[in-house]
Design a protein that fits this description.
- By secondary structure, the chain is mostly beta strands.
- It has nine helices and 70 strands.
- It has eight domains: about 240 residues, no CATH class; about 110 residues, Sandwich (Immunoglobulin-like), CATH 2.60.40; about 120 residues, Immunoglobulin-like, CATH 2.60.40; about 100 residues, Immunoglobulins (Immunoglobulin-like); about 100 residues, Immunoglobulin-like, CATH 2.60.40.1080; about 90 residues, Immunoglobulins (Immunoglobulin-like); about 130 residues, Macroglobulin (MG2) domain (Immunoglobulin-like, Sandwich), CATH 2.60.40; about 55 residues.
- The longest helix is centred in the last third of the chain and has 25 residues.
Amino acid sequence: MMHANRILGPALVLLFVTSLMFGFTNGMNEENPPVQLEEVVVMSAPTDPGHSVFAQYITSDNCGYCYAYGSPAHDQAKTSLPDRYVYISYHSANYGNTADAESGNIAPIYGVQHLGESGGAPKTSFGDATLNTGCGSNTCWDSYISSGGNMHSTATDYSILVSQSDNGDGTVDVSVSASYTGSGTAPSTITMYAAVTEKVCNSHVYADGTKGGNCWEAWLLNNGAYAHNGGNVGSGTGFETVNLNSGQATNTWTVPTSLVNGGASNMNTVAALYSTWSTTSFNADVFAAADSTMAPALDVAVTGVTVANPESSGNFMVGDTVTVDANIRNVGDLDYADGGTIEFFYKNGVNEVSIGSSNLNNLVSQATQTAQITYDTSSVPSGWKTTFGARITGMVGDGNGGNNVGMEEINQDRPPVSKKAQISGENTIERDTKATILAKADADDYVDTIQTMTFNIEVSPTGTNQWSSTAISGGQTIVFEGTASEGREYFVDPMLDSSMAAGWYDIRSQAVDSRGQTGDWKVTSGTDGFKLANGAPSVLVDAVGSVRCDTSERISMVGHIYDPETPLENLVITSDDEAFVAWHPNEKELEVKFRLTENNGCPTGQQSLEITMDDGGDYSETGIMPYGTLWFEVVENGDPRWSGVPAQTVIEGGSGLLDLTNYLSDTSDSGEVIENPPLTVVVMGNSNPEAIDIELIGTEIAFSTVDSDVNGQAIIHLRVSDGKKSSDTNLTINIQEVNDAPRLDSSEIESITIKRNFQRVIDLRSLVSDVDDPVEEAFVSVTSSEPGAARYSFIDGTLTLLFETTGEHTITVTASDKYASGITVLDVTVYDSLPFYLSKDNDGSSYMYIALEDTYISQIPTVSMALTDSAPAFNYVQATWNVCNSLTGTCDGIYIYDLDMGKSSWTEVLNIPSLMTAGGDARPDGSQFSDYYMVTLLATDTNGDDYKTLVGVKWDITEDLPAPADMDDVFFSDYLEDLNAKKALILEQIESLEAGSDSTMLDSELEEVEADLAVACDDSRADCISVTSSDSDVETLSSGIDMQLILAGVGIVIVLALLGLMVSRRGGKNENEPWNDSNVPFQDSVANSMYGGSQGLFQQPVAVAPQPVAAQPAAPAQIYTGPPLPPGGLPAGWTMDQWAYYGQQYLDREN
């Protein structure tokens, strides 16, 4: 054993020295960085943008990227697209000053200043747009060119031609021609940008000896002038401005060959068409560009096709003769004289059908030709649209075949498609009313609409095909426009055709469009048509008046009997009553005689006479002829008499007043009329008191309907008396029906509760009623405060609800008939989750009862939860427990778990996992002062409804554990058991410590537990067992290593290791880790909340680290800060760390 100890010391020293040497050499063992292989550049070229592209290129003698990439990139683009791409180089001496005179930045143009530049290269502006800076390959400009180069959208409508001619006398003639080739209006003012350049820049050699291209040498100005670095020749003031309205515009200049280095063959004139030019700003529109290296083009194009129809603008009927015009133009630079043909055609599907041709004329550049044919469209197939076109064929040398054809699409005007007419509203009409017909059709083309279509409407007795339009009127009103039911409204008025007999009528409808084309007749027959009801005669006023007893009297029936079709004198009136004498049609009088009998005397008073009225109509359906009853007042001499009291009419909900004085008279016994007789009137009866209320005021009778919905008729029996004799009569009151809007019975649905995104269907049609009309005719529409959340089905009358947003909503239901509408507003509450009711009291008021035990400080609570009888049938419940402290304002633990739904009650010890320490408990030593436990629940029932607690249930921990003497027996027994278990656990932890480990904290906890246990064991109820630690004998090595020597050696090695580390750090890369203030503790929100939020605590200056010293033989005891402990020692359930930070609050509260 002693031998092994002697070897241990040197081995440890050797291990530390090896680590130290590795640190010394660490910086010398760097790995060589990998070699990056150079990427092979693959050359490419821009794609043809379909029109010319103009670029202004800023470059300099000493710009390495310019001669390495920028200029070669422009050169290869020009080589790839020689007749499309045009560029000019503004070449300065130094890229620090790109706006020098050498670059062309001179009056009056200032080319570089125009781009807003003064330094930096390479840069390129395409189409006078913002400069593109930098170039790192020989294809760097390709993408800008391929995408159109920022040229104007009408770039293909312009052409420009540049030509040069060497005069052989040291001068060159330059010509620039511009023209507009489009179909629109040519501009009257356009700026002609023009400059002389060196094709190969002999005068501007790059630093590496290479030369770029198209370097500026002179500006070509207005009035034939030009400006270069030697001066302004001709005093030009700017670029030339031209007018393209009159065709091609050409400007010429004569310039010296000496402008360029290399002679006339190295001169290249560059030109472009600008919308304007400014010496201080760019972004003008650029329409076209060319230079003198570009060959003139040959291009003849069809620039437009038009189709005209003299019968109708913008459309044609098959069979119309149309005129097709084709506009041809030589849009190229060369004259054309090699012939060709202009072929006209129309398209039948994908095939072109030839309809004529013309010869192509000889056309000089920009010349035009118009070709025309007239074509009968009878053979054109029917369709909604037809395409006519013209194509140039047989040309020689045309450079652009893409513009040799032009087409124009024109709408066909086709006959409309008639639909069956419909009766709107009641299909049985009286002779003095009208039937409303809705005539409908579809326009079978893009030409007509309901606005341009009319209808032929005819009616016929059903099945007879005796069609007539005599009774038809209307057609001016369009209804339901823009919907599937749109049409025109017509009327059948029987009063316009006296020959119309009663019975069923068919309707036929034919649509007529604006060109007079007609659709097929569509017949609406049988009961889908309309029925003209027979106007049966009736008794209009049944109270005829007084007649004398046993006297034949003739009474006029005018105003008493009425027939809407037949004159009164044409009626045949008969009666089986013995009082009937005769009907005198010519005089329109009815003769009666109420005879005196020996047994009954004179039949005075109200006497009825039933009559039959025959107007010649067919009453076989009912088998009963029209009949009615007339009432006569039979009087003797001296009796008060009634003259016929006219029937009264009142509307639903209305009232009226009738003075009866004008209908009363009296005679004396001798038959003499008594003036102003003292008569008394009384009401003897009311045949319909449920409909009419009657009140008699003297001789005035007032009447009113009982409510706004009743209708029908009431017979009021009246009696007048002069004090001796009396007589009776009847007053008829007719209640005129007034239409009421349909109503919705919302008693069961006026307040609806529905879950978000869950559908509910309501049979709305069954809740609609109409007191006047059939409920099937009611039109229902529905809107909701959340668009689309309520949908009404016209097919089955159901209302479907599906809301996506929670909260309070409304649904507006509108029920309408032909005359009125009723609106009902329903309130809807939309919820996401239903409330889950919790209660601490088991009183049945909630879904779940929750009780918490062991709620004293230092205890770990136990929760008991049970569903109540009022709880829904849940199939899922999730509980979330939080433990927080109201003093610190932090929540230290959370516990989320699902309840076993096979049970109805649950018990759980709340060992809540810590949010601060992974794998630990939030309260390993039990609850602390001012802790609170809060629970929330989520649940789902068997119906799929979700539930959640709106406010969590909370338990506060505020009370210390009571003294053992104050505990009941059960509480005391549990308390003693917990202390013994805790002590055993601490002893186990102490015994498991490695030799030499610090057990100060565990010893302190053991002392506290033993002190509490000693107090508890003093109680007479305690049954305490002494537990002692099983001390292990420590073998002392009498001949072992001198521990002080080993510790001193280890200290020296640590010092050397630190010095070695410092050296190795100094020998490594000199890289300082950037400061990151997020590593400072005050940035830690958890630390701030735990330690009172005092970030100043963590912002003190960093103390200088002391030099390492030799390790001490033993670690000093841990020192705790904070206020002094109270006389009773550390409060139960507190740790020294907690006391250090929250002890002062505890003392303040206790005091």
